[in-house]
Give the backbone structure.
Amino acid sequence: MSELVIYIYESIIVFLLILLSRILSKDYFNKSRLLSYYLYFIAGMFLWIISAFRYGVGTDFFNYYNSINQLDIKNVKNFEYVFYFIKVFSKNIADNGQFFIALIAFLTFFYLCLAIYKLSPYPEMSIMVFLGLGHYFSSFNGIRQYLAISLILYALSLFYSGKKKRSILFLILPVFIHFSSIIFVVFFALVNLIKKRKVIYYPFIFLTIFISLLFYLKPNLFYNYIFILGYEVYLESRFIVTGSNIIWVIIEICIFLFYCTFNYHSKSFYNENILYLSIPFSLLSIVFTFLGFQGLIFNRIATYFNIFHIIFIPLTVENIRDTHLRRIVYALILIVSFMGMILFLGRNLAEVVPYQIFLRNL
């Protein structure tokens, strides 16, 4: 437990800062609102600092740490030039792998915190769910993918605030950082197309179930396309045998049922609120997590959809009309999220324990 202390302290401090920030944001006095912004900024900095100043923490740390010295544009795959230019920018400022790690962490948590601030009615709950589902610790590994994910979240925050032209830019940009994000773009467009035609979700549900069974029974059909995506490394045996376990599938199913219980009959479910994405995105998360039994690549795809739990869960809680019930659910989600974080760290699923700061290696 002593090895987890830094993360436990971080989660408590960040939660309290954001909770206080939300409380102060309701005050009509300018000074209180300004203090609210400062507290939220400080909370975001805590998330960034722990990620930025780690050394050797996370399975892919040294791959990214050393990649700053591999800047041959000929090695860029799938038009992922934006990430390449970020590396060039980092190297020109400081020819140091640690600076590159810190820069990516800053961009990731900057856009993530902006999206949460714009979309979530309970930002402190969003952060706890982010920690509880292990996304924060997974971001120590899938550095490039989580940068793409944070931009996607920010893109949707713009989209649902009426800034659709700007949102398109931030929705396309992740494709040039991590090409797999094109899968999210395609499904996002499909869900919106179905919604506009008022077909609801039944055809979409049957389609995703059919695809999941097809790829589960015949995974080679999907693996052939991995070569096109440029992620053939995931066809190595160590990635084929590593993936989901039944616990993650059960968690996704429980969250899906939670959405169905409290959202399906909500008046805001079918309007322009982002909440209408909760059920289809949750379903996709179940599908790809289930397919994760066939290999890690499917889990990576599932992340594009289950990351939205950090937005949908607080919005769903806000939808609960009974004040007493809402408070109970609010408290339960915080408790379960904290316990989930402890269990995730206890099993060291992202290899982020023990934590080591880079200053020790100077």
Q: What stands out?
A: The chain has 18 helices and no strands. Confidence is low (pLDDT under 50) at residues 237-241. The radius of gyration is 20 Å.
